[in-house]
Amino acid sequence: MNPKEMVGLIAATGCDVRTDAPMKALTSFKIGGPADLLIIPRTLEQLKGALAILNENETNTFILGNGSNLLVSDKGIRGAVLKLGGEFEEIKIAEENGRRLIYAGAAALLANVCRFARDHSLSGLEFAYGIPGTVGGAVYMNAGAYDGEINDVIVRAEHISRVGIVGGYNKGELKLSYRHSAYTDSGKIITGAYFELKPSGKDEITAKMEELMQKRLSKQPYTQASAGSTFKRPEGAFAAALIEESGLKGKKIRTAQVSVKHAGFIINTDANNGSSADVVELINYVKAEVKAKKNVDLKCEIALIGEGFEE
Ligand SMILES: Cc1cc2nc3c(=O)[nH]c(=O)nc-3n(C[C@H](O)[C@H](O)[C@H](O)COP(=O)(O)OP(=O)(O)OC[C@H]3O[C@@H](n4cnc5c(N)ncnc54)[C@H](O)[C@@H]3O)c2cc1C
């Protein structure tokens, strides 16, 4: 069955389902053509139901968080996109063997988890306040900022495999390193995670969150369409500095531009007509110039997803 023929079956599981869903509405880059199917499960049962149908039909399926680390192809995504909602947005205190943990569903926004931690006088997640992703996306790539990363605070993550088997990884099994985890390219769907934080004063936590947010606002093109840092930090160097020293700050190819505020970000200057083709051309141009001028091979941090981007 082709993806669009599955709408009725998927809807019968209770999931929300849409055809030809424009991905530019679901990504911080504001770029991306339509996904054949967008499926939003709100419970584990709905998710299991959708996975069973997708598996039976061998449907190519992409897991979407908040779309803040992605460049989606102008041609869109052939197959299905799964975006968790409902109970997967839950955030709560979980007592475990005398420990007071925070549980957050994979679809919870990091900013909301940070606010919840602050309201419960728990410190350790302040670094994540300005990262515009979900818990699932952050665990998937061990998101980090300002000397903090998910690895510092996570205790365990829970997941479901593509064939519907529920499981989990303890901290050691998560194999978290720079922008990498055991989930990277595993196909497993993260459903939630447990974090252990330290008791602290609400005012101190609030002050730290605000200080780091101000830093971001002053240094990053935070309110412009982008997917954050375009490139990974190369060994012993900073991508932004290499790009700036190569004379590329502000370099523009049609709708894509190396941010004037922070050379590590490529921004989409046209929220209505931004194009993945322009961003890819600019990425390739930057890579070639930095290689020629600095002899460093930059690698993308953002994930390129969709038709034409398959490896
Ligand atoms: C302005 C700006 C600033 C940023 N600053 C930072 C920063 O300081 N530090 C940082 O690390 N990142 C930063 N980012 C990048 C981005 O916010 C993070 O990488 C974030 O963790 C991505 O989460 P997401 O939910 O948006 O994931 P998405 O972009 O939707 O997906 C990213 C990857 O995670 C996978 N994924 C998402 N959810 C799940 C799940 N439930 N199960 C399995 N896989 C899943 C996707 O399949 C995809 O491969 C920034 C981005 C922007 C736009």
What does it look like?
The protein has 311 residues and is an alpha+beta fold. The chain folds into three domains: 3-86, Uridine Diphospho-n-acetylenolpyruvylglucosamine Reductase, domain 2 (2-Layer Sandwich), CATH 3.30.43; 89-204, 2-Layer Sandwich (Uridine Diphospho-n-acetylenolpyruvylglucosamine Reductase, domain 3), CATH 3.30.465; 221-305, Uridine Diphospho-n-acetylenolpyruvylglucosamine Reductase, domain 1. Helices cover 28% and strands 27% of the residues. The chain has nine helices and 19 strands. Strand 9 and strand 10 (148-149) form a beta hairpin. The chain is globular, with a radius of gyration of 20 Å. The model has no long low-confidence stretch (mean pLDDT 97).
Task: Report the bound ligands by name, code or SMILES.
Answer: flavin-adenine dinucleotide
Q: Mind describing the biggest β-sheet?
A: 5 strands, antiparallel
Structural class: alpha+beta
Taken in chain order, the helices and strands follow as HEEHEEEEEHEHEEHEEHEEHEHEEEHE
**CATH architecture tag of the largest domain:** 2-Layer Sandwich
CATH class of the largest domain: Alpha Beta
End-to-end distance? 24 Å
Rg (C-alpha, Å):
20 Å
Count of structural domains: 3
Helical content, roughly? 25-40%
Low-confidence segments? none
Strand content: 25-35%
Tertiary shape: globular
**Count of runs of 4 or more consecutive helical residues:** 9
Number of strands: 19
- CATH topology value of the largest domain: Uridine Diphospho-n-acetylenolpyruvylglucosamine Reductase, domain 3
